[in-house]
Amino acid sequence: MDVWDGLSEPWRACVQLAWEAYLAGSLPIGAVVADAQGNVLSRGRNRIHERSGEDGFLFGHRLAHAEINALIRLDYDRYDPATCALYTTTEPCPLCAGAARMSDLGELRYAARDPWGGSAAMFETVPYLRRGNVRVVGPADGHLEEILVALQVERFLHLKPGILERFLATYESVMPNAVRAGLDLYRSGTLKEMDVVEAAVRVVDQELRTVA
Ligand SMILES: [Zn+2]
36 C-alpha to center of ligand 1: Å? Predict the structure, then answer.
């Protein structure tokens, strides 16, 4: 089955947002808050490299992370966060792990590990996070993870082609195929020709099959 077709509604929204972030020049990371039935209640995406943005979202700042943007857009008067899940394409950083706990979310689901900044382990080691009610679930599915990481690597190469040795080595030790696919996509420039998310996901998927 096509990867995109196999995604549930919250994951589809997250990947769509990640692709929007990619197209806007930020990091391809998307997040949503959904209720127990999987209805999407709020959306956010990475906006760190953008100079403009819609009202109510953080943008143009190092802290304009996808998860923060999804969390600050949730209507807490209407929805009980303890019954909601934060879905994010990428394992949350310390900032976003803390934000999920402080927002009193019931669950945190991430699709792709982040061997560099991923901090899901904080929920096991930091007493304040352990005492919360956030159930952490991830990574979601091996193939979706590889697609998201390849996309991320490709974006990082565009942003900072020179400095990545240590960063890439960290990723490579955990997900070598995704890194190789990201490098190939960067060199070929194929993603630049993509506009809709389904096509982009298919291209990355094909690249992963080539390097596997
Ligand atoms: Zn974050």
Answer: 23
152-171 average pLDDT score: 85
**Which distant-in-sequence residues (6+ apart) come within 8 Å of 2 by Cβ?**
202
pTM check: above 0.90: yes
Q: Which protein residues have their CB within 5 A of the ion that is ligand 1?
A: 65, 93, 95-96
DSSP 45: E
pLDDT of residue 140: 84
* C-alpha pair distances (Å), 56 with each of 44, 47, 102, 196: 10, 12, 19, 25
What gap in Å lies between CA 64 and CA 59, rounded to an integer?
5
State in Å: Cα 71 to ligand 1 middle: 11
**pLDDT single digits (tens) 82-96:** 999 999 999 999 999
